[in-house]
Amino acid sequence: MRAAVLHEIGQDKLDVLDDVEAVGFGPGRVRVRVRATGLCHSDLSAMAGVLPQPAPFVPGHEGAGEILEVGEGVSHLKPGDRVVVCWLPACGACPACKRGQTELCLAGFMNAGTPNFKRPGGDVFGFAGTGTFAEEVVVDAGCAVPIPDDVPFDIAALIGCGVTTGLGAALNTADVEAGSSVAVIGCGGVGISAIQGARLKGAAEIVAVDPVAARRESALEFGATRAVAPDELAEAKQQVTAGEGFDYVFEVVGKSATARTAYENTRRGGTLVIVGAGAMDDFLQLNMFELFFDEKRILPSMYGGGDVLRSYERTIALWRAGRIDLAGLITHRVPLADINEALDQMRTGTALRTCIEI
Questions:
Q1: d(CA 17, CA 135)
Q2: Minimal CA–CA distance to 251: which of 290, 299, 293, 214?
């Protein structure tokens, strides 16, 4: 079986090998033939060591495919079913799940330390307990979520992470108020999805902030009312809010520097939503007076901040109704053999989302 493998944390290229085997099939597990997967910035972060992940590993967590085989005790899936791979399944029994905060369930993370693959040289892990840069993957049955037959695999793959994260940040976490002002810092696939979510909620002004001109142009097509480079944000703040600051600011980069910028551009009493996944040693500095005096809400948004399965269903319904554009997010397509080309597209910002066709 072919898969793209990172041998050591810190390497910037993947090795596409044909001697990889998906392992772990058994009771409560399913074997999935991956048909399409998106490249998410979290994959790059794991490769660089920003996000913790044992190596060697197969990146990829934003995938879709079809069931090849189901293990004993799996009754809701059968061979041939079309599924989206969910990297953060809810166990339904932990305290977070019982409180209705299924996005905080840690069951999925427990799988990250168990090898999903093996090679003649030893075990290979799957990123976030999945590893969709492979022709096949074995996952817990809860990680394989059925999708309707009319949802193409490439669209379903996006729903598996980036779209759910961005849309949910606006719809669930922020619950953007109609008529409000919004700024989105970082306009890749997740940021563009946050823009679409803010538009759905009726935001009057949506300012897209990104250093890449092509991404700024794309943001306007997806619902932003204006798009600026980072050094133009202060002027946009003055023009849109008379200098007061935005009602909602979404940080979709995952760095303390941009989070601080986001905080400073949020109005007093406004809402800062942290969407980007950052490093454990990157600290955001705030002083105690400003926290008290400005009364700004700081809301982290994990995987869209809501029930994942319900979010999938809602996204499909909005896509079917033409209320959100998912196909337009896919700006590039490459075969698995050219995965390193996709990495370059992500690093340079030339792609919103690259679909890896497997």
A1: 11
A2: 299
Query: 3-state DSSP call for residue 253?
Result: coil
Residue 67, CA distances (Å) to 44, 59, 156 in order: 27, 20, 14
Measure the CA–CA gap between 134 and 224, rounded to whole angstroms: 35
Cis, bond preceding 335 (omega within 30 deg of 0): no
Any idea how long the chain is? 358
Residue pointed to by tokens 């953060």: 88
Q: What are phi and psi of 315, to 5 degrees?
A: -65, -45
pTM above 0.90, yes or no: yes
Q: Which two tokens stand for residue 74?
A: 């799996």
Let me know: does 129 contact 116? Beta carbons within 8 Å. Answer: yes
- Helical (H) or strand (E) element with 31: strand 29-38
Point out which residues pair with 206 in neighbouring strands: 182
Q: Which amino acid does the sequence have at 88?
A: L
Residue 224: name the closest of 166, 271, 302, 162 by CA: 166
- Three-class SS state of 9: coil
How far apart, in whole angstroms, are the C-alpha atoms of residue 322 and residue 151?
13
Q: Which of 220, 160, 154, 153 is nearest to 184 (CA)?
A: 220
Give the distance from CA 239 to its chain's centroid: 31
Residue among 85, 76, 158 nearest 116 (CA) = 85
Q: How far apart are CA 105 and CA 159, in angstroms?
A: 19
Query: What is the rounded CA–CA span in Å between residue 297 and residue 286?
Result: 13
Rounded to whole angstroms, how far apart are CA atoms 105 and 97? 6
pLDDT in tens, 297-340: 999 999 999 999 999 999 999 999 999 999 999 999 999 999 99
Residue 62 identity (one-letter amino acid): E
Find, among 172, 147, 253, 173, the residue nearest to 209 by Cα. 253
Name the more confident of 110 and 143. Answer: 143
Structure tokens at 102: 């299924």
Using DSSP's 3-state secondary structure scheme, residue 27 falls into coil
